[in-house]
Amino acid sequence: MSTSRPTEEKLQKVLAAVGLASRRVVEGYILDERITVNGEIAHIGQRVNRDKDELSFDGVPLRVNPELVYYLLHKPKGVISTANDPQGRKTVTDLVPAAPRVYPVGRLDKDTEGLLLITNDGDLTYRLTHPSQGVEKEYLVELSQKVSRGNLRQLREGIELEDGITSPAKVSQIQDGIIKIVIHEGRNRQVRRMFQVIGHPVKRLIRTRIGNMVDHTLQSGQWRQLTTIDLLHFETDQATE
Ligand code: URA
To answer: What are the distances in angstroms from CA 182 to CA 82, 103, 109, 140, 234?
Structure first.
């Protein structure tokens, strides 16, 4: 890829340019040994190639590879969460730019709406979908009736599903029949199945948060490109949870 940037630039300039913090703050991070270049503690004035060198902050890679893209999509109802559908149905990747080729991180059911990450960064996908990772996912659930306190407690403590009991969840009824639930697991149709067991089939399901990622401005079908810094804060938060 052609670029007008010099191949080697001062580290503090690159770190400021990718939005980590101001140059002055970034210099403090370098002095505090919080920055590494290719795994080695960095020093002020060091020259780096932002397309090739691996820069990390507190051990979290700063993605400066321009070939990696990250989209946060507000998935509409009726669209499927795969990159390709043999039956030719509309998929989430039809809603974002066609190139480079990208894939959803995990999935939302066809009828579930809300936030979905889409990327060509396989490492990030692996880190986020690995069961040990336990990224928090928050959903708004619409039901036709109010849920009893006993049922809310069951949802919080664990529901017996055919693939095992669910892990503790944070659950609150914000209005009669409207529930906010936060889970760490990502089992197939988990939220719908949990509510089915307590006798409340889900009418509408919306994912409103992934880790610390929220976006109240995205309308159904809209997406925005995530910046290096969105991702950095996202992953740093995961690491410190
Ligand atoms: N739980 C579900 O039931 N469906 C989703 O799409 C996501 C979580």
So the answer is: 24, 24, 17, 9, 17
pLDDT at 99: 92
Mean pLDDT, rounded, for 111-117: 97
Give distance in angstroms: CA of 221 to centre of ligand 1: 18
Q: What are phi and psi of 167, to 5 degrees?
A: -70, 160
What is the pTM assigned to this prediction?
A: 0.80
109 as an active site residue: the answer is yes
Whose alpha carbon is nearest atom 4 of ligand 1? 189
pLDDT confidence of residue 130: 75
pLDDT, position 123: 83
Instruction: Tokens for 117, please give them.
Output: 């990450």
Residue 19 CB contacts under 8 Å (≥ 6 apart), including other chains: 227, 228, 229
C-alpha 102 – ligand 1 centre gap (Å)? 21
Q: How much of the chain exceeds pLDDT 90, in percent?
A: 66
From 109, 111, 230, 237, the catalytic residue: 109
DSSP-derived 3-state class of residue 127 = helix
